[in-house]
Amino acid sequence: xxxxxxxxxxxxxxxxxxxxxxxxxxxxxxxxxxxxxxxxxxxxxxxxxxxxxxxxxxxxxxxxxxxxxxxxxxxxxxxxxxxxxxxxxxxxxxxxxxxxxxxxxxxxxxxxxxxxxxxxxxxxxxxxxxxxxxxxxxxxxxxxxxxxxxxxxxxxxxxxxxxxxxxxxxxxxxxxxxxxxxxxxxxxxxxxxxxxxxxxxxxxxxxxxxxxxxxxxxxxxxxxxxxxxxxxxxxxxxxxxxxxxxxxxxxxxxxxxxxxxxxxxxxxxxxxxxxxxxxxxxxxxxxxxxxxxxxxxxxxxxxxxxxxxxxxxxxxxxxxxxxxxxxxxxxxxxxxxxxxxxxxxxxxxxxxxxxxxxxxxxxxxxxxxxxxxxxxxxxxxxxxxxxxxxxxxxxxxxxxxxxxxxxxxxxxxxxxxxxxxxxxxxxxxxxxx
Length: 433
Fold this sequence. Notes:
By secondary structure, the protein is α+β, with helices and mostly antiparallel strands. Helix content is about 30%, strand content about 25%. The protein is built from 12 helices and 20 strands. The strands form 4 sheets. Strands 9, 10, 11, 12, 13, 14, 16, 17 and 20 form a 9-stranded antiparallel beta sheet that branches. The N and C termini lie far apart (about 45 Å).
């Protein structure tokens, strides 16, 4: 049988993994709901995919289980890769059939359920945050938390439909919004609404950052920490990343990340754990992604380490031990930025990016209607900026945002382009791990 490398919903950085698999001589199979991208930095070139299988809906478990079983029967599946939450359980099932190292279909489903993750971490002494399902919270007669809480889908993606609430009245208003606000990405919309339930979690104090790792049969190799930029008017809306981020509490954060991997039984593949980190006090997980960081993060990692990060991802996907010697080398610094349209824009236009911006990509087609909101999924473009130091990349990335043209006009300092970040993010801090 042919040795096949299977990608589930091939999009964004996954094309880099597909190219690496193809270069190794594997037969590349893609299961996709959306059409393959035909433009931009993540365009899928002609001939890369040897077999394209159309998935009518990632919610149709019966159909996809048949596809997975059929692939296992027709091919010697030597590797798999997925990066969208709805596809991850199916990928885990295929890996089990193929005898590849993985996390197991049932366990992946467990980790994708944010309410179940919180219960597990509280039981293991790794979280102090209280939580409840929305259906239970709507029966409350008193607000049980000292401060605010975050309402989010129990099975969510892309930070969509997240609301900060601090009273029962605000909770009911947010609950109503979950029914009325449109999720603009059809794949994400289907995934969120298929599961339906929302979870309310006590708000954690501190700044948002994440730990990026490659896990090889139980051994956690930490790539580093990623700092965050959020929208100045709404801290729930993530607008950018800086990698690496040398936080003063890095060693403690990484120790907790490894403990969480063990508690959740995640033993193989790329992962991203999002934390809230105060200057003092407990470090709290807010999300566990059993996949690589999204959009162009693979490009930012490659730029930072001067490697092709997709090589390590493909090794893991094929059950091979990746060469992680690059982790010992000095790094450059990278930022990945999402750009919102200016307030009042109702139609997507062409955009012009500054010369120092890499991997520039429109996330909406020119002429497409815009929602008029300023949520993360309302972003219209993405760019990557690099520099030799954290301070230099911070300044360069903000300048690149301001200089980007929308409908011929610079985004400048309009309210949708004003960001907030930790005062540490632009400092040249020393690596602590």
